[in-house]
Please model this.
Amino acid sequence: MKKKKKLAGVFLSLSLVAGALAGCNSDSKTSSSSGGSSTSGDTIKIGANLELSGGTASFGQSAADGLKLAIEEINKEGIDGKKLEIIKVDNKSDAAEATSGSIKLVSQDKVVAVVGSATSTNTLAQVQVAQDNKVPLLTPTATNPDITNKAGKLNDYVFRTCFIDPFQGTVAANFASDDIGAKTAAIYVDSASDYSKGLAAAFKEAFTANGGKIVAEEAYVTKDTDFRATLTRIKSAKPEFVFLPGYYEEVGLILKQAREDGIDLPFMGGDGWDSPKVVEIAGAEALKNTFITNHYSPEDEDAKIQDFVAAYKKKYNKTPDAFAALGYDTGYYLADAIKRSGDASPEKIRQALEDVKDLQLVSGTLNLDENHDPIKSATILEYVDGKQTFKTKINP
Amino acid sequence: MTTLKNSKGFWLSIVLALIFFSVMQFTISNGMLNPFYINTLMFIGINIMLATSLHLIIGITGQFSIGHAGFLAVGAYASAVMTMKLELPFIIALLAGGILAAVAGMVIGIPSLRLKGDYLAIATLGFGEIVRIVLLNIDYVGGASGMQVSHLTTWPWVFACVMITIIVIRNFTNSTHGRACISVREDETAADAMGINTTYYKVAAFVIGAFFAGVAGSLYAHNFYIIQPSNFGFLKSFDILIFVVLGGLGSLSGSVLAAILLTIVTTFLQDYPETRMIIYSLVLILMMIFRPQGLMGTREITTLFTGKKTKGGPKDGSHNTVA
Amino acid sequence: MELIQQLVNGISLGSIYALIALGYTMVYGIVKLINFAHGDVFMVGSFVGFYSITVLDLSFIPALLISMIVCAIFGVLIERIAYKPLRNATRIAALITAIGVSLLIENGLIYIRGAQPEAYPNDVLPMDKLDILGVSISSQSILILSVSIILMIILQFVVHKTKIGKAMRAVSFDSEAATLMGINVNNTISATFAIGSALAGAAGVIFGIYYIKIEPLMGVLPGLKAFVAAVLGGIGIIPGAMVGGLLLGVIEALVSAAGYSLWRDGVAFIVLILILIFLPQGLFGKNKREKV
Model:
């Protein structure tokens, strides 16, 4: 009996070692097949460090789909005869995984640029890797200002395709004061998210500057499921407007529970709401009288937007959300920079990304300010019968 | 005689370790090793420290603690505050991380006087979660979005800390104090009756274990650029627990070995996050069913060659070892 | 008025904890194992309910029953495959196995269907709002509370009035003596797992209907909280689990109501540690304990 147990143990230990070896094998295979310097041969390798699983997977997957579509279109012609190859890493919506994923892309796969994560926190986790290794990091949708410029210090290797939090928060505050006519507002923020806090801070500043008053400031944490107690608090503060800059999973639940508890106020959020799941979770009824600021609207009649929407629908059989659009734009922004860089070296690409001027993209015309932040227009959408409808477009 | 043999093996492993260190240092400073492997190497070192420090609490003293990530978090944040906010040198940050974690160890060691087995386990788990939630609510350290930390952890630091941890814990185990701890694990009532101050030794084990976990936390914080409360949830505690149990409860070299193996396995399976966890959990279940005493049982590597069992461990398959 | 509303909020949250805690306390009472996988059985139940409603197009009651049956079988399988071989092993080995089973279920499901959340249809049960003196109570929260209480009464009846209940109490009291008295300990333990897991499955479906969003990791925190509730009420005591769950829900709601919503989870664990230290037998535990 004892001997049998021992044997089983030895077997298990062996299998563990075998597992380790298998891990090494599969790894060395992938790296050898694509080995050598990144710019040699016919392909230019770019990394994509996105949330393919975990809490914000829906954003990462959309951005990845958009990016993939863009790269396929670009590869039809190629860049000076070379093709782009994406190497994807899943960061599991986790900051530590995002860091080690970027280290892997930069040092193991030797990519010329990394397309950074869809959310601010995971992108912040990669900024230092990009700076230390002098490889450009380009995030499609991370809107926190600290990413490109922390305390007055420019992160010169970091870029983004989207506008930043303060702009979204300000647009929302002006919309609340001018269009809704709200004098008092409540803010309900996801304290686990830099993005949510960034929007809330900008909203608060602009709304008070407009002469409004913030009557309640409450917080929740990502993955919470019961918000009724806090919503009851908000209700008794009697605001005229609720600003809810969170992500779709919790936002859906909050809206549903708020409507159930008889809070019929207008709610407004940012691009974090933009996912079909928000409609599934909250239900069309609860989404009545809610608004979001977003990067673009698939219903905008601009020809470039309609071409993109058609191509995306054909490939994935669904309407692209803003994350997909920005992922797509990121592909073109990067391809444009690689083309202008000449030799596709990380340093030249960085310079080309910085020198971008009047680049026509789906989400608007791209120019950078001195902080590497795009100057672009924002779109306000309203949910009508569970569908986003184009309300207005606001230029910076 | 056996002690002589043991210490021979001990010195041999130290020499081997130093050779390993020099080789690695040489390849790193010559740029032969790319950052990905350096990163893995340092992560292995940090995990070894975590595994051996928990080994002291669970494997030697028999106190079933599953809140080890709490100590890791305290160390990580304390050291990050030292370097990033107070701009003190890294060595002070390392020590501060260790000492604050040790204080936390004392705090959680006190309830352990009254609790046993499952109840202690669940209480320590609760403690780990409380640490995480407290950090979540302190704006000074960035709240939920965490702190950005500069990269100061280097291979010599990691190596020195790992060596100190292993040597201290090994010597502690082989001392009178260590034997007292083992007696607490084997039978607390009997140990009490023999005049051993069980309260003292239980708290001592928590404090020492927490100290090294805190130092590991300092290295962790300065290796990964950003620390967030969500890095230190109870899944992290489970990871550390798994090193110890897979290596063999009561075996120091077992926990070191398990930490090395599992870190390599998980790092190389990074491209397949879902299957990685499935393999991980399956190994865990099968291991517990077929070999509940872990890879090494209670033996040490040094005694593997002589075929003798250390006096420290209980007999294989004994029912009342831990908890 | 706000306070009463908060109590209502707390009770509907607590009813879910209570439902999970009922199964937890039974299993712990009989095999003395913190079944970490219990929260994941709850999650599986939620998904089974979801697919029964959306794919098989069933209504609430059949979906609830299917989910309870599937979970009962699932629970027995877990017990037979993973826990039974370890019945005489150390406690730590059993606990590690429970953690392993929990991780396996979560990641197995993520592997099969991905980590993205799923949303229960909004129209499974009619949604009415009752307004009583400015306090709004949804019909669903009344449903949750009544289902929990009904299940608790049934459970209490099974444990105290039936033969299998008697066997459970005997095994819990002294499993070796029970064997000598001719009780089939293996079957009794399996029956306990079946009943406990069926309750978790029911809780899963109700959770889905009430909170809409379900995802593979949804069982982790409610599972832990349910254990806190079970300890709070006195482990192994069925009405204790019920009261513990409701109490925990109310405590959490009050903490949020006071404006400390971010501390809510922390408070649950502080309650746990305080209870463990000062009142380890729980609120309902007496010197002469009656356990299952």
User: Anything to note?
Assistant: The CA atoms of residues 44 and 260 of chain B lie 6 Å apart. Chain B has 13 helices and two strands.
